[in-house]
Write a structure and sequence with these properties.
The chain is an alpha+beta fold. The chain folds into four domains: about 400 residues, no CATH class; about 130 residues, no CATH class; about 110 residues, Jelly Rolls, CATH 2.60.120; about 80 residues, Maltose phosphorylase, domain 3. Helix content is about 45%, strand content about 15%. The two termini are about 20 Å apart. The mean pLDDT is about 95.
Length: about 850
Amino acid sequence: MQESKWRKRRPLIFAFLVPVVIMAGYFIAVKVWPFGNNSVMTVDMGQQYIDYYSYYRQTLLGHPGQFFYAFNKDLGGDALGIWAYYLMSPFNLITLVFPKTMLDLAITVMTLLKYGAAGLAMGWYVQKQHARGSWVVGFGTAYALCGWMVANQLNLMWLDAAVFLPLIALGCDRLIKRQRPFMMLGWLLLAMVSNYYMAYMLVLFLIAYFGFRLLEVRLPHSQAWRAVRQFAASGLLAAGLAAWLLLPTAFQLAQSKGTYTETQIQWTHFESNPLKLLGKFFAGAYSFGQMPSGEANIFVGSIGLIGFILYFCTKEIRWQERLAAGFYSGFLLLSITWAPLDLLWHGMQFPVWYPYRFSFVICFWLLMLSLRALLRRPKGITITQLLIALGVMTALTLTVFLRRDHYSYLTTGAIGITAGLSVAALMLLSLHGPRRRAFTIAIGVLMVVDAGSNAVLTLNQLSDISHSDYHTYTEALRAGINTLQAKIGTNSRIGKTVLRSKNDSMQIGYLGTDQFSSMLEPAEPQFYGELGQSAGDNFVAYTNGTVITDALLNIKGYLSPRLSAPTSVFMPQIAARPDLQRYDQVGHTKVLNAYRNPYALALGFTASQNIFKTKLLPQTPTVNQERILGGLTGTSTPDLFNVEPLSAPQVKHGTQSGSVVTKTVLTSNEATTVTYTFTAATTDAYYLQIGANFTDNLTSLTQNGRSVPIYDTFRDRELLNVTPSAPGVKQTLVFTLNKDSADFADIKLFRLDLADTLLRLNTLKANNWRLTARGSRSLAATVNAKAKQVVMTSIPYAAGWHVKVDGQTVKARKALGFMLAIPVTKGEHQLTMTYTPPYFWAGVGVSVIALLLCCLWWWLLPLGRHAQ
């Protein structure tokens, strides 16, 4: 008996281990840390997700309130939506085992375990279809290392869906055949909690899968309808059990990502020529260029593809089933070519980068049909089937080879490898027989080799962030933050002129200013842009602060690189802030200088109610900053930014037509430059306005030979700090064109009247609140209003804030289209603020009811509690 159990479990163990060993071997070969200086942090993994994993650790290891609210999400905001999309995977618990300084290693281990779990889940599915031995290992590995899995290795939170899909499908099978719904319900619930976005795609596929399996099993009508009812009830109860998370997340989506939902469908638009998809059946069919826009990643290996072809010419399978499979296969093909269906799969929003995110279900579908076909031919495929498969594979290979210029991500070698493996697969399938165990093992080995070659060839085309860049920057920033917080405390924001990730503040755990998230509310980038800061649909970056914005946003501390910093420390600079010399230097580390801003306002202060009437205008950062100060102080809009003279532009190696300069460079040693000069008459801060068109590295800029960083992505006019070190010295500003032409129409030089500005800021500073307590999602403060005023905060307005003044609930209001403000009467007041995500308790109520219904169902169902 024990030997029989071991024989049954051994293929499942290998289905888990083989993908892990292949990928671990690859990571070791390419020197992923700790075996070298590389990492698995490619694109968003290094720029976004790893910081969330650090935030995950901080929350579970001491700050549970951060599950609901994050003060270190840009200027502060709802956190539950971030958890629902990025952080609810059970695999994330692995990060708790590793110290914070080894977080990238934790991610590597987590990646390997998800590969292994996908192989195990698929292997179990295959075994339940009455396959044994090498089939379990081969199909498990083919699925774990399919095109979608490897291409989306960097989107680690999506991989859970691929792990859960075979398990949910098994639960669906059990529901149909044995009227036991709880396996499907349980795994579907876990998928919904793990990542609602991918679970949505799972549900769309599951509906079709259920219908297909129902057709295959051919139940009597009464049993079929019972299965339909149980299927629907299971899905609804799974959603109900997850309502505590899904309901508040739905509200946050309506405030953020949901605002970009497409309302007009282009019914005649085809996104891709089906011929372009043919290249995706070859190993290594991926590259960096495929990330922002490309075809669906549907590689499943030669056996998987040949088996899929054979499925439709296997007479042992009923023609009704094959017809239904053909129709759904056509539907999936349309889904990766026709825009309306692509839109449906993605929740009515076209994805930004990583197209066809649902194509993991196609990989599963192809392998499932392939398995069904091959299991129907235990003595090998027929001559007719061999000729059909050979013809199709030959046509596929010749088409891709002759059109290889259309598949830039494919090499001739990759085409040759897949072609060779396809020939070997056809030979093995034709020789397969019930007593030829060696051939069965050979097929499993071939599937493993095929899948492994795809993983290697795909990942070889991608680059990553080095371990040293991540580690040295993170530890240097951590040291700088600790130094600064020792002087200014932990309840004020910190700005910096360096940036590795726009989620640095979540990585280290401090009140910052930046954010990169798919759950970003549109009001935030709009507000940042109106102040002249870098922003986009899903990010904000405080790159070009002024004395005014530093003060208004409670940026009490600043970090900037030291001139003597070791060059071995990765420290990318995003801004020049020579005006930091006006701030108080309070310390330094080996890498960073720490400054305290003597002009910074508190997170909250009393001000004039005129701020409710203040409107900000697009593309006018200087006017908007003046308007805000005027509104807060209850005065007319002051003239604080004065236009200063710039010399006429001098163009070298280019032609000028109006404000547009075009390159005429003849040799690679020549550069097209545009030069301006000015001389400062005072020690005030000077700001150079550039246009929104200067984004995407259109130009680079130097001031007297010193580089002035321009952040690489923004969509509004920005203010670059060009304050001279001393007045009376001629300043030379040289723009170098990095592209063919640039429009310099928006170039202006402003001088900030520092004396008038500080007078107004000090008036507001005298009205700062006194913060008495700050929790992970709460604040308590004492304020003193001199008249009927408003407690103005630099905390973003959100519906989840519950405010009390002197113990009485008060309705908070929105100021400047973004900030939270609280009307108060004259006198001293005790203010408390607590954040709870909207609809959280309603969701908890729904989940409790769903749990009670599940318990009742289990009790009443004959195959539930009473099952033996």
